[in-house]
Amino acid sequence: MISRMLSILGSTGSIGTQTLQLVDLDPSLSVAALAACSNVELLLEQIRKYQPKLVCVYREEKAEELKKLLPGISGSISSAGGTYDPARDCKVVSGMEGLIEAACFPDADTVVVSVVGMIGIQPTIAAIRAKKKIALANKETLVCAGHLIMPLVKECGAELLPVDSEHSAIFQCLVGEPEAAVEKLLLTASGGPFRGYTKEQLQNIRPEDALKHPNWSMGAKITIDSSTMINKALEVMEAHHLFQVPIDKIEVVIQPQSIIHSMVQFCDGAVKAQLGVPSMLIPIEYALYAPDRRALPAEEKLDFKKLTGISFSVPDLEVFRGLYLGIEAGKRGGTMPTVFNAANEEAVAAFLAGKIRYPAIPESIEAAMKAHTVTENPDVEEILSAERDARAFVRDYCAL
Ligand code: NDP
Ligand code: MG
To answer: How far is the CA of 243 from the centre of ligand 1 (A)?
Structure first.
């Protein structure tokens, strides 16, 4: 059995904690490094249990807080060798430099990128350069920098596997298939909690309404993105880069039960689909072990005797304007996907904080896109500069 040492960037989040559930199930997985933004309390628990040698807390004051707390948990830890003392054995770092250090940590062979937002770009690039195996959950990174990331993966001989369930499904459907035979990718979407709503019904949605996803339990930002269907727009761009398929050959199909995770149509008309219960443990596991599969004994399996139906429909691009805008941003390319994404990140954070209304999310993205002059084939600096401008634009536009 191959053993794997993980560095988990975003270990306190939904994907990060589910990755740690897999570590609990498999003695061949262990943890070399962890990173989060500020959740010191959960990091302390994770340090006690998984005994990493490096921890990054992005916010510096929170890293200082963690350092002060480490001696307090020292006595309570027993390890195989009986010698893990976090105050001595666990280095604490912070900021982007720290996040990059966790991404390149020599003890780790596999990096799970499960931070939320385009903050993932630089650590992902660093992990690729360090030739790590990368399990990538963070879609914003590919949306903004996929044109840099995918060639770099090839050039460095790194390996990058998707965690996002739709992309994992497509990846699995493509195993053993010739690239030239792919006619289109069929990206499924649940349609979120507001499927079938009119524009008028979306006017007064509150954060607590949008945070209720019918099928998936996820972090707050992606749950809001699912409700606006902006998540699906980001996934179209993610698929475009991952599988090198033009945007107009990626079709979004509403499949409300979230049983079919995505499909591929081939030139002879055959369609392959990947199905399963809506659980992220399966795609996370596949990203860690592919092309192998491990048993997930505790997971509920799809029971066709209980399945009453799988239905399909076409997304309403007028009501879900964000999906339309994202597809347009993807077709335009250059810095436009970054502007779409950064404006969305800024607007979603403001909506969650109760500062703007729900319809202001797509409205401010559209205004930011209209105001932007595209830079073609941007490098990392140009991407980050487009991000800063788009965020400032939205703050100004929404009077934040
Ligand atoms: P969560 O909000 O649950 O978790 C985000 C994680 O990122 C937390 O650990 C958070 O730390 C950490 N983080 C945020 N900012 C920083 C930073 N600046 N430096 C270091 N760590 C940071 O998000 P999810 O797990 O839901 O999503 C993570 C990514 O995976 C997203 O890109 C999402 O689109 C994608 N994804 C998620 C799915 C899901 O089912 N959840 C499905 C498919 C894709 P802290 O807790 O300290 O704030
Ligand atoms: Mg998804």
So the answer is: 23
